Amino acid sequence: MIFRWIASFAALAGIVLVYSRWLHVNQTTVALTLLLLILVLAANFSLRYAVAVSLAATLAYNYFFLPPIGAITIADSQNWLALFAFLSTAVIGSRLSQRARDEADEARARQREVELSFQLGRELLQLDDIANLASALPMLIARVTGAHTVVLYLLEGDRLFQHGIAALGGVEIPHLRQLSLALQQVDTSQHGHAMLPLKAGVRPRGLLTLQGVDLSRESLETIGGLASIALDRAQALEEVARGEANKESERLRTLLIDSITHELRTPLTSIKGAASAMLANDTLPHDARRDLLQVIDEESDRLNLLVSRATEMAQLDSQQVHMTFQPVAVADLLAEAESSCLGSTAQNPVTTTVPKLPRVMVDPEFIHKVLCNLLENAAKYSADGSPIFLSAQMQSGMVAISVADRGFGIDSGELALIFDRFYRARTQAGRVAGTGMGLAISKAIVEAHGGSIQVTSQLDHGSVFTFTLPVEPA
Ligand code: ADP
Q1: Of 49, 54, 127, 388, whose CA is between 20 and 30 Å from 243?
Q2: For residue range 369-410, what is the model confidence (pLDDT) as tens digits?
Q3: pTM summary value
Q4: In terms of Cα–Cα distance, which of 117, 119, 157 is closest to 135?
Q5: How far is the C-alpha of 299 from the C-alpha of 102, rounded, in Å?
Q6: Is the pLDDT reported for residue 147 higher than 80?
Q7: How many Å lie between the centroid of ligand 1 and the Cα of residue 330?
Q8: CB within 6 Å of ligand 1 — which residues?
Q9: Nearest CA to ligand 1 atom 12
Q10: 260: alpha, beta or left? (left if phi > 0; alpha if psi -120 to 50)
Q11: Residues 201-239: pLDDT tens digits?
């Protein structure tokens, strides 16, 4: 500021000095040079500098260049003319340059607002987590617009999402609901505070409130429009996903029913056959009766297993199971599985190796099921007497539990498929009874714990199934 004053008067003094001392030119040249200086000041600084210099220039012009030189004769009409010319140049010049500056400022503000709308549009399109759009929207809008508080209210479900300092309470909801229904256009009546109606088509959808913003009405309308479109998009995607999930669950249900009817028929046929044989012949010898009863007993067990696995799978599918995670020692999990999964008549010796490990966060009942499943498979798909190894170790911050056997192994082409529902490896499907559901259930349980399950195997050499579990948080 002070620099401008000094520069303005220094320039005036310089001109007066040059023309009065060294360059002796006529009065018109002096007047035109002073006029030029005033024009330059009006264009680059503001009006007051130009006006102040105009007054000083009139006096200097009169004193140094108009006869009688060295005296001020205010009454002279030339004086008034010079003052009028200087002042009008100052005013016109500064008005023109002010207008140009205003227009440039406005153009810059518009450009910034267009960039802002573009950035918001891009961020909304790039948002991956579309399901949580409503909760992310206030933060995103605050970041892009610089608003200190953004509140999003959605009529559907009376939901309120906010980002920023001036938090609203639930008491505001009825008020917001009324505003959402009534507001048709962007409301900027309070300075720095904007209310944007959100629409779904022509129906009101909710309200967006921005505090601490200074944006044009057009930009606010664009922001409201973008937010509405993003919410429309999220809703449409959600509906598509729901439709697909329904279709998938319908497909699985049909698959389950098909497979169960098929699997149920085999044990039922055996049971029916054995029972009919016993009924038809009262005089069966004791041993034969015992054999038939044994068939009925075993096949009923198989039926029971099938039905319970199918139920379990359906519950896991529909996320109806409730797991309670608690810290458990890995050694306890393995010891319990070793002693109870294979039964007392087990033909395969199990060796357990557990180093010192942190406790894992699990639902012990469900992990017990996974371990039993893997141990039963290891025994089922191995020759009698072949050993099974149960072990645990740390692996990338999680506890990895492995069940290894030296059994029949799995063809490499089928490794990726055995965790699918109902899939049974071709080599064993006929040889050993099974449902093809055990591994699918185990996978679902392990994943619900935040872990993963894998297998490595070589045909005729054996398999190693490994699953990971999260450790107890410190
Ligand atoms: P099920 O054993 O009832 O058939 P699973 O889902 O437990 O169903 O297993 C799916 C398939 O994976 C089995 O049919 C079998 O072919 C293969 N499999 C599972 N565990 C082993 C193993 N330890 N050794 C060889 N094959 C296995």
Answers
A1: 127
A2: 999 999 999 999 999 999 999 999 999 999 999 999 999 999
A3: 0.51
A4: 157
A5: 91
A6: yes
A7: 24
A8: 373, 377-378, 381, 405, 407-410, 418, 423-425, 428, 434-440, 463
A9: 418
A10: alpha
A11: 888 999 999 988 888 888 888 889 888 888 888 888 888
| Predicted local distance difference test score (pLDDT) of residue 408 | 92
Matching residue, tokens 């639902």: 363
Using a 10 angstrom Cβ sphere, with 0-12 exposed, 13-18 middle and 19 or more buried, the burial of residue 295 is middle
The protein residue with its alpha carbon nearest to ligand 1, atom 19, reads 377
Q: How far apart are the first and last CA of the chain?
A: 61
Indicate which residue's Cα is closest to atom 25 of ligand 1: 409
What would the mean pLDDT of 149-155 be, rounded to a whole number?
89
Ligand 1 centroid–CA 350 distance in Å is 18
Q: 377 C-alpha vs ligand 1 centroid, how far in Å? A: 6
Residue 358: predicted pLDDT: 95
84-106 per-position pLDDT tens digit: 888 888 788 888 888 998 899 88
Q: What confidence tier does 167 reach under pLDDT thresholds 50, 70, 90?
A: low
Question: Which residue, 471, 331, 463, is CA-closest to 407?
Answer: 463
Res 48 pLDDT > 90: no
Task: List the one residue out of 467, 464, 448 whose CA is nearest residue 456.
Answer: 464
Task: Please report the atom of ligand 1 found closest to the CA of residue 441.
Answer: 6
Give strand pairing partners of 393: 400
Q: What is the pLDDT of residue 273?
A: 93
Q: How far is the CA of 421 from the centre of ligand 1 (A)?
A: 11
Q: How far is the CA of 429 from the centre of ligand 1 (A)?
A: 9
Q: In a 10 Å sphere around its CB, with 0-12 CB exposed, 13-18 middle and 19+ buried, how is residue 124 labelled?
A: buried
Please check the confidence at residue 76 and state whether its pLDDT lies above 80.
no
Q: Which distant-in-sequence residues (6+ apart) come within 8 Å of 438 by Cβ?
A: 309, 373, 376, 377
Tell me the best of 428, 442, 460 to mutate to test the pocket of ligand 1, counting ligand atoms within 8 Å of each CB and taking the most: 428
The pLDDT, as a whole number, for residue 454 is: 95
Q: Ligand 1 centre from 407 Cα, in Å?
A: 11
Which residue among 313, 437, 439 has the greatest number of ligand 1 atoms within 8 angstroms of its CB, and so is best to mutate?
439
Peptide linkage before 68 cis (omega within 30 of 0):
yes
Residue 235: count other Cβ atoms within 10 Å of its Cβ.
16
User: Whose C-alpha lies nearest to ligand 1, atom 13?
Assistant: 424
Distance 458 CA to ligand 1 centre (A): 14
